[in-house]
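User: Could you check the structure of this?
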Amino acid sequence: INGYGDGRYGPADRTGKGAFTLMVCRLFNLPQQTGENFVDVAADSPYAKEILTAKVLGIADGVAKKEDPGSQQNREEKSETQVEPEKNHFYPESAITREQAIVMLVRAMKIQAGSPALLSAYNDGDKVSADARSAMASMIQMGIITGDTEGKLNPGNSITRAEIAVILHKVLTM
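Assistant: Sure, the predicted structure tokens are below.
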């Protein structure tokens, strides 16, 4: 993990999804892929190639476009027969959560799913999203993540650069 270029590292700073994707692709030396990127990733983005690679390799998932839930158009369009929106956005500048980062790492590492029962040992294990439960359990089982001093995983919290550095170091040295 590089600093900002002005001598700062920013260990407490939150990390964007694009920056984290770049770190994962570099860590695993993933071969650059071609194809169609997420619609919100500009071709000249510093993360464009890595996000596309992660998308093609199944490491990064897209999400539906974020809508203003109170907009008139959104209220009028809602119905019981509404089709699921296409998940073609990535929001590369938005902060990545702890569980999102772990899911991406587990996918990149191609490791076996862990037993979600391991999450019950943590005060907030029930707050881990359904699609992240086995990934979080895998990393717990491997000793990559251990929770905080209060016995929490904090799955929905943004992950800091310091936390990422520790996790990536553990992945590299396991």
